[in-house]
Amino acid sequence: MSRLFEKVTLADAVGRLRPGMKVLLPAGCGDPAALLAEILRQADRLAPLTLMGGLRLDDYPFAAPAYAGRLRFATWHHSPTLAAAQARGDVDFVPVRYFDTVSVFAKGGAWAPDAVIVHCSPPDRAGYASLGVSVSYSLAAARRAPLVIAQMNPRMPRTLGNAFLHRSQIDCWAEAEHQLAEYPRTKVGDVERRIAGRVGDLVPDGSTVQVGVGSIPQAVMEALAGKRDLGIHSLLVDHMLPLIESGVINNSRKRLHRGRMDVGEIMGSEMLFRWAHDNPMVNMEPSDIVHDPQVVGTLGDFVSVNSALEVDLLGQVNAESVDGRQITGIGGHFDFVLGARQAVGGRSVIALPSTGRQGKVSRIVARLPAGARVTTPRFIADYVVTEWGTAALRGQSDAGRARELCRVAHPAFRESLEREATTP
């Protein structure tokens, strides 16, 4: 069914929303800040309204006490910033992996949206608008939503691939030009560089690599400077640009879309957004492609690098909770660990510092504590890397896993971990 593609004001666009609706927002750098600000202005009229989405780079303004009981938030990516709103009942955490967001948060899913807001470039002469830096779950949901509202921003890069909505798929749009939300570079220290050096040893030339955001992924990219013919799958970030410009990342040996990187999100700076504009090396794909373990499994020498909060001596990985409190989400962690296991020549790497809380606690633990979330189960854990070494877990017995993980724990905690490993 063709939609009207009406040009309206921001106020009129949000005026299409009704109380009680569930409204899906893009993630990360694709945040439609102008439309969100208008939703906040109309909060009294819209109450109760449920906003939905993933990782955000702002301070979750709709979760402020001023909007208590009026604006709710449903998400698969938690944040400590949401703790107070969750305590008063205004946050629903939905524990799904990224691959499942395109079905759970789309028509027919448990959290089917009544409206999808997209943030896109102006349409080209053929009527196609690019969702730019954030395609992952938004595109699939928008193509099936009852109501689609677009914020057209001339500063949104026109990314290529499976990134487009035609004007006939948009009910109404409002123009609002503003700088995109940026993901800042993080500080990289000696510990991160030591970890990254060990991770780099696990990345052969010609591999297709998946990394996230943060200090360890940034350090890993720096450590790959001497590699050849790497490919990228999943996410495009600032710290990949030097490797692209030097030719280390050229995607020439990828088994899927050779010569192009497949990404669902772009997270970085204005410099990265400009580079991605109309760049044929960038192939945007929704999460049902990028995060599908079966698709990842076709990539062959695929190396997945993810972080964690703690790993126990069985190889169970917790990447989501602290002291029983949900502080982040599953994200793409499990998708890519499973995909790497299915890929011929694939390997998954869990990279983390050996200690936390300024060295007071070990992040290699005898057993995950009560209430801890298991993000990656022990039976598909592959490599665990700390600044002290690399633990190879695939195919190991329980005793072998414990020995490997004790070896990469901080020396201050090894003896106690070894004792606990041998205690029935």
Question: Percentage of helical residues?
Answer: 25-40%
Principal-axis shape equals globular
Question: What is the alpha-carbon Rg in Å?
Answer: 22 Å
* Lateral strand order in the biggest sheet: 1-10-8-6-2-3-4-5
**Low-pLDDT sequence parts:** none
Number of helices: 15
Structural class per helix/strand content?
A: alpha/beta
Q: What characterizes the major β-sheet?
A: 8 strands, parallel
* Record field, number of beta strands: 25
- Strand proportion, as a percent range, falls in 15-25%
Termini Cα gap: 64 Å
Mean pLDDT: 97
List the helices and strands and how they pair.
Elements: E1 6-7, H1 10-14, E2 22-24, H2 33-41, H3 43-46, E3 49-53, E4 71-75, H4 83-87, E5 91-93, H5 98-104, E6 115-120, E7 128-130, H6 138-142, E8 148-152, E9 164-166, E10 172-175, H7 190-200, E11 208-210, H8 215-223, E12 231-237, H9 241-246, E13 261-267, H10 270-276, E14 282-284, H11 287-290, H12 293-296, E15 302-307, E16 310-312, E17 317-318, E18 321-322, E19 325-326, H13 333-342, E20 347-351, E21 355-356, E22 361-362, E23 364-365, E24 383-386, E25 389-392, H14 398-408, H15 411-421
